[in-house]
Amino acid sequence: MDPIMSRPDAAALVRTQMSRKGLTWTKVAEAVDAPLVWTTAALLGQHPMTAAQASAACEVLDLGDDVGESLQQQPSRSIDPTLLQDPTIYRFNEALAVYGPALKALIHEEFGDGIMSAINFQVDIARRAHPDGDRVVVTFDGKFLDYRW
Amino acid sequence: MDPIMSRPDAAALVRTQMSRKGLTWTKVAEAVDAPLVWTTAALLGQHPMTAAQASAACEVLDLGDDVGESLQQQPSRSIDPTLLQDPTIYRFNEALAVYGPALKALIHEEFGDGIMSAINFQVDIARRAHPDGDRVVVTFDGKFLDYRW
Amino acid sequence: MDPIMSRPDAAALVRTQMSRKGLTWTKVAEAVDAPLVWTTAALLGQHPMTAAQASAACEVLDLGDDVGESLQQQPSRSIDPTLLQDPTIYRFNEALAVYGPALKALIHEEFGDGIMSAINFQVDIARRAHPDGDRVVVTFDGKFLDYRW
Amino acid sequence: MDPIMSRPDAAALVRTQMSRKGLTWTKVAEAVDAPLVWTTAALLGQHPMTAAQASAACEVLDLGDDVGESLQQQPSRSIDPTLLQDPTIYRFNEALAVYGPALKALIHEEFGDGIMSAINFQVDIARRAHPDGDRVVVTFDGKFLDYRW
Amino acid sequence: MDPIMSRPDAAALVRTQMSRKGLTWTKVAEAVDAPLVWTTAALLGQHPMTAAQASAACEVLDLGDDVGESLQQQPSRSIDPTLLQDPTIYRFNEALAVYGPALKALIHEEFGDGIMSAINFQVDIARRAHPDGDRVVVTFDGKFLDYRW
Amino acid sequence: MDPIMSRPDAAALVRTQMSRKGLTWTKVAEAVDAPLVWTTAALLGQHPMTAAQASAACEVLDLGDDVGESLQQQPSRSIDPTLLQDPTIYRFNEALAVYGPALKALIHEEFGDGIMSAINFQVDIARRAHPDGDRVVVTFDGKFLDYRW
Amino acid sequence: MDPIMSRPDAAALVRTQMSRKGLTWTKVAEAVDAPLVWTTAALLGQHPMTAAQASAACEVLDLGDDVGESLQQQPSRSIDPTLLQDPTIYRFNEALAVYGPALKALIHEEFGDGIMSAINFQVDIARRAHPDGDRVVVTFDGKFLDYRW
Amino acid sequence: MDPIMSRPDAAALVRTQMSRKGLTWTKVAEAVDAPLVWTTAALLGQHPMTAAQASAACEVLDLGDDVGESLQQQPSRSIDPTLLQDPTIYRFNEALAVYGPALKALIHEEFGDGIMSAINFQVDIARRAHPDGDRVVVTFDGKFLDYRW
Amino acid sequence: MDPIMSRPDAAALVRTQMSRKGLTWTKVAEAVDAPLVWTTAALLGQHPMTAAQASAACEVLDLGDDVGESLQQQPSRSIDPTLLQDPTIYRFNEALAVYGPALKALIHEEFGDGIMSAINFQVDIARRAHPDGDRVVVTFDGKFLDYRW
Amino acid sequence: MDPIMSRPDAAALVRTQMSRKGLTWTKVAEAVDAPLVWTTAALLGQHPMTAAQASAACEVLDLGDDVGESLQQQPSRSIDPTLLQDPTIYRFNEALAVYGPALKALIHEEFGDGIMSAINFQVDIARRAHPDGDRVVVTFDGKFLDYRW
């Protein structure tokens, strides 16, 4: 008996079909009927999908039931440390090294002692036109949680 | 002869006066006449201030010229790794571990092969009212830079 | 000759059948007639099972003798460090970073110089209803061991 | 001008007076009128106290206003990695290495995809009498937070 | 269905054909009609190629469409840390450990607060004849980016 | 008896006088009569200076003999790892992560099995005007050393 | 041609047969006619066996010549760091963290400046009956080596 | 107010007086009336002493009450990782890397699934005469603890 | 198409034939007509061989052309960190931890500011008879390179 | 009471006087009447000196009794990892990364299973004249120790 396909193996097949069929994440997210960043993260292995979502994804991607089964599994949410070297990802971490303590200070000033939830949380990405070159705008939007005993 | 006060020592005195005088970062940023997150980061040691900015900051904080001299120095922008354990800062890094590969994929889809600049870059923080509890909204806004030889 | 199936390979097959047969850990623990957290940990590879426990587990999970043989092996109890990034697991470690020194001080105050055993030890998990949202209650219960020469 | 006393320096003075005056954490927590584990953690530098709490703590500990001022500051919540080697603290981390994946699986089974909050969270410690030797019982009690976009 | 060949697998086949056919990177770069260092890096897995570039590379290297498909994929740009031990690569990192702070100081003196871009960036390598032994000359040429809010 | 001033302490005083006297590294290098990058690195603690160089540096910087004595000492050439996070320095390391294996392949193709020396070595930095924004050009120039038994 | 079976692969087959044939390490050590801890370590991959020892081991374990050939190879003596997390192994390392500096001081006091050899060295393990519970007694016995130029 | 002297500072003074007064650990342990290895470890900062033990130690070492107060404090039991490089300490860790898995296997064979306690534990060191050179014999003696739910 | 056999795979086959044919490194080095340590290192994957050397090695080792092709490839010179734990290798690193700063001081005293090359470099190993036991004598012989701009 | 001066503090004063009095390690080793590398290592903090050696060293270096007392203390033999970055020291470690496995294989071939002792061990350094540039010759000479139970 073979175990359920792993989430990384499923993600590799998703990327394969994205490329071979010329699909965009936007189009797949529409097919799945879920937010763009959420869908992309889920297909790359970071969220479990419902059976309906997995089925819709596999249909648009022309992938089999073994992939669909995998996409519904609860993943371990983690990242291989070497991926953090990739410049497109690293810049976000650099920004947090520079601005993290300031964000902490300002969250405490505005909300009190607590955090921005990373669970009750959504991310969005947009293009902002600018005469000096268009800009990537990423918005982190999480519920404030106060330290409460 | 004593060397110029280090940026961390200056930041400790800034925090001391913030607390003793009951000031807010918002108020200090107004005095410095600079954006809120930028000013907070600069006073915590991550940006050099101009002479005028440093002077305005020291006036509202009632700090001496030795602090003002320090605030104008070019810092080394880095973060002590143990600070990354702080839950308020850690949640941002967790979000990037979960969504980083998805953001990379979507930047490439929308803009092509490149990155969001962390230099030509600004961060903003806001409170968004919500019936289930107010939310922290942090916006990263950086110029897209394409890999260009 | 093939070696005995590894504990991680057995765990992958356990998870596969849990999903395909729609079983719960609670139901499997009942079949194994052992505590819930213990059974889950054992099936995920952290405790050796007796022959009877392994047999009961394989029966309810519809798995073969090769899995049953594996489940009886003495495991190496360790965790891949990247799994500690998973937010559901990380929160426990964060809580220990925040409260660890306090727990140490209080154990010393109440019991004297020593530790809570992690071997003569049991863990339980429960749901506690709460008007603001139900709560996860995890109880660590270990024998006090005093430093004794 | 001297900066505000650091939280670790304040904690060292708290420990000094605990020892010299023969106080218990229980007694200090009563004086502060706050939960035992919370108070211990706060005095060791992991939570900001209110002015009233800091004042009550300093009175029972016979410590000065400089300590009281420090106890009200927002700390960076982190732990020196070498402290994690201490056996009394290490046993908790060992238990999580052994049972972490099982707890994750059981939280998902009972509550769905999400986490136990470490912010809306409380810890308690108790002694449980047992004929084979009394036991340390530590309870983690955190609000369940589901992944919600 | 097999996933797209990974970039490291494609690079291994590129190196294989370079050796078996006695090709030089210079010759392959000419066939691809792209700069030498860029082409080498791309074939080793650090840049996506256009369909035309991948096709030209596969033709000169006598490699199949599966390699060509792989060469067009967006890579994760990272390096296995053990490769940094290789003396030919390590010397560059050693030079940066010795001269990095000086380069930072001189960039700030000449350009102001900012960085040399590693994205809008090109590298060149040349041989410089010298009576004491020829020299390797590597030029990093990146756009200056100033910290701009 | 006090030991010789450490190189980092001397470097802090050098930076102090650079700032207070409004000097540039270029001007100090002229006074020392040595190459710009070499002089900057030496004053920041990475090379020993001759007595004459140290004396010239201290004269233009208005620093005492204790600094001059320190500047002549043989340093340990190393860098604090947290400094490598600084974006201005990090970009060089990122470029080497991306292009290091390509540079290795091209050195081997052009020169044979060996390395670019980091000892018989010089670095230069220049500004290159460009209509899209001026560029930082850093040249590494080291003698080729072949593996020779 | 296949390479010689690796020592870890041979160890996995040894463990397999230990389990399937219900053998004990004591019995295998008798068959090999070598000390108990040495034999166990050798079969787990940490010492080369003579041809006679390997042959005797394979006979009692009913393993083939390919395993016997592997057991005679010179191993690399090292341990995967994740195995050090296993509680049964970790306790030894914890004891050394607590008592290491004391053992060093006492070796120097009794023998002078030097070490206990880990090469001219033997380990033994025994059970010591005790009314409060039997005890594990592990003896390290190594030749003293003095620093001798 | 000064905090209680740290355990490392107390240990440095203990070592100072050991040297200046020509004392041996054996003699101090007799004065303290406690086992040799325990006393050495306690004076080096790894165990709290009773008031009587601390007083006896300070008398024989001619140290003040401030040291005696420190010796009674509960320490954090940990070791600076750089100390593990010391060859006299390292050899013990090397022996565990080589024999750790064998000891684990033999503990399980003799006692079942469990560990040797490092808390209900004692260490002894002895000299064993041998014609090829005397030997260091270190005995670890800890209660067996079985995994018991 | 299969890629060229990796250097580690080739090294495993070399070791296999060394064992099966009862060859010594000395004998193989003679066949290759190259220095002993160089040849051993090259066959273990650290140097490229010429076609003639690879052919001679494969003939004496009775290995195929696929191995010979591999031995001519330019390797990445690095070592898996876990191999550094092996006691036979570790002792060299320990010696450098103890004597490294002294060697640095003496190189600077005798030669001036510079290094011993590890590229224009040879290593030799010899047995030196000694009445107390024969000795391993390893000689590092590298060209002095002075820091020269 | 002040503790005995630390070995690093003593080494800093040794280096200070070496520089101020223009002494060489050779001359100091003669005064101490001990081998050159041993004396240098001892003065830099890696070996305890006898009273006579310490006295002779302090006389030639014109240092006080406090330094002499320190030089006689048993050190912890370790090295700060950042010092290993220094190129003069790093080259030795690089050579071991390249040749370590070969040296291990050749020690086993010539001597059998065992190690070169780093305790019964001496190091020497010499200059070897060579027409292409003089060479640094470092000899490691340690007693062979065979694995002996």
TrEMBL record, chains A, B, C, D, E, F, G, H, I, J:
Record keyword Lyase present: yes
GO molecular function, one term: cyanate hydratase activity
Matches recorded under Gene3D superfamilies: Cyanate lyase, C-terminal domain, lambda repressor-like DNA-binding domains
Catalytic site: R91, E94, S117
Pfam families (alphabetical): Cyanate_lyase, CYNS_N
EC code(s) of this entry: 4.2.1.104
Alphabetical UniProt keywords: Lyase
Keyword Lyase: yes
Superkingdom classification of source: Bacteria
Catalytic function, reaction form: cyanate + hydrogencarbonate + 3 H(+) = NH4(+) + 2 CO2
Domain Cyanate lyase C-terminal: 78-149
Function comment: Catalyzes the reaction of cyanate with bicarbonate to produce ammonia and carbon dioxide.
Similarity annotation: Belongs to the cyanase family.
Name listed for the protein in its UniProt record: Cyanate hydratase
Organism: Pseudokineococcus lusitanus
